[in-house]
Amino acid sequence: MYAGGRLLLMQLQVLLVAGTHGNEINGIWLFEQCEKSPFLINTHGIKTIKVIGNPEAKKAGTRYIDNDLNRSFLAESFSSMNSSNLEGVRANQLVRLYGNQGENPCQIVLDFHTTTASMGSCLVVYGRREADLALASLIQNRLGLPIYLHETDKKQTGFLVESWPCGLVIEIGPIGQGLLNSKIISQTKLILENFLEQIQQVKNLNLLFPEKLIIHRHIKSIDFPRDEEGHIDGYVHSLRQSKDWQPLKKNDELFYKLNGETIRFEEDESFIPVFINEAAYMEKNIAMSFTKRELWKFKPEWKQSLIDLIN
Fold it and tell me: What CATH number belongs to 2-215+297-310?
């Protein structure tokens, strides 16, 4: 980038997003407090921009207005502005303002979410971008957070973080939609500060990457049992509820119907369920997602990709 014949080096900026879903309010509340008292968050010298992803949904107290904002970052959306779709317009706006080629460019985005499922805190990585995996490995090494690798799901696309060179989703729970909770707020602050500290360490080339990382790779999602008219006619079994991250074995209980029928896990291969009975996913016909736990060797090219991006 040039100005007056001088080459201007792009300063590293990290975009911090809360309220991509308007009823996930803990991150929003923390960001609003930071506006009043900027030193509440230790940024470790990293320049950050904090934004509310979907301010209109926040005002309405709903997940979204027209469409899920976290499914609205699609190439076809960016090629044409559809003024009737609030989230499509907002996705365009965020990329235009803060994308890597935007008016106020950011190279990394951290998107803070909460979940009603008993997931605790975890990182969500979309695809296998090298810088994403390197940054996620630093946080797993530091805080021990599970990494959920979401890929090969053609029904679930258009995620916010995919529109930046490097980006991760942070899921924190369990917490009901529209509720503030001290533990969730504290976890959000802790994870955010650790991310910024690790980014600063990479910037200073003071690196401590792990040799391996644990990945929970997305395999598929399953729906609730339904009747012939498509209505849900069974619920998550009591022995499966709140058992995120716990391996399934054949014949384990999944769902229960009031007529006494139990629907069981019939796969020969063991999977690990996540987002069990997530409230926001009922509209997406997802009762839970199955993952496979894998141990990956850290690759040097991941490290170099993150270094090149930050420096």
Answer: 3.40.630.10
The 10s digit of each residue's pLDDT in 154-164 is: 888 999 999 99
Q: Distance (Å, rounded) from C-alpha 196 to C-alpha 218? A: 27
pTM, to two decimals: 0.94
| CATH code 2.20.25.160 for 220-292 | yes
Asked if residues 156 and 2 have their Cβ atoms less than 8 Å apart, the reply is: no
* pLDDT, tens digit, 9 for 90 and up, residues 56-76: 999 999 999 999 999 999 977
Domain boundaries, the chain: 2-215+297-310, 220-292
Phi, psi of 219 (to 5 degrees): -105, -55
Contact 5, 53 (CB under 8 A): no
